[in-house]
């Protein structure tokens, strides 16, 4: 007579683990406008008719004051979104104007038929993240002008390089939607 002994190992089965459900970054749940103060390289901006990605950011500092500029590209060329609290949140979109040979040499400048008055100027430091065309950190100078109708003209130079001109316009928070990158 043969005896068959079956040994059963003590097996504990794990409860089935529900897979995490991916979230749709375009879902209309809650506030999708996002906080521009948290922008970083890889985030997407949706302007309603145009989508673009933040390619790099500059973290700028002068004394105890800080602000950021985020680089992206449009069909028209290179652009920046500046984000600062002075003391309220101020946003502006800047279009690079490499064709401009004007420098911030006076308190009033005429450019393309518009008169701009010097708003502020100074020197500070920057930290670069992602693609900006600059080294990781360095020094910068700036001069910001504004016209009577709110148009903006800005000059920046980094690490004692040449002045770079940009024209800008103020934008309201909520004018675009932010989709965080991974």
Any descriptors?
single chain, 3-stranded antiparallel beta sheet, 8-stranded antiparallel beta barrel, 182 residues, 49% strand, 0% helix, 12 strands, mainly beta, disordered N terminus
How would you describe what is shown here?
The protein is an all-beta fold and 182 residues long. Helix content is 0%, strand content 49%. The protein is built from no helices and twelve strands. An eight-stranded antiparallel barrel has the order 3-4-5-6-11-10-9-8. Strands 2-1-12 form a three-stranded antiparallel β-sheet, with no helix packed on it. Strand 7 and strand 8 form a beta hairpin. The protein is globular, with a radius of gyration of 25 Å. The N and C termini lie far apart (67 Å). Residues 1-12 have low confidence and may be disordered.
Note poorly predicted spans.
1-12
Number of strands: 12
Given the structure, what is the number of helices?
Answer: 0
Q: For the residues shown, what is the average pLDDT?
A: 86
Principal-axis shape:
globular
Strand order of the largest sheet: 3-4-5-6-11-10-9-8
User: What is the succession of H and E elements?
Assistant: EEEEEEEEEEEE
Roughly what fraction of the amino acids lie in strands? over 45%
Estimated structural class: mainly beta
- Oligomer category: single chain
Short description:
The chain has 182 residues and is mainly β. Helices cover 0% and strands 49% of the residues.
Indicate the topology.
Blueprint: E1 44-46, E2 51-53, E3 56-62, E4 65-74, E5 77-85, E6 89-96, E7 108-111, E8 114-130, E9 137-147, E10 152-158, E11 164-171, E12 177-179
Antiparallel strand pairs: 1-2, 1-12, 3-4, 3-8, 4-5, 5-6, 6-11, 7-8, 8-9, 9-10, 10-11
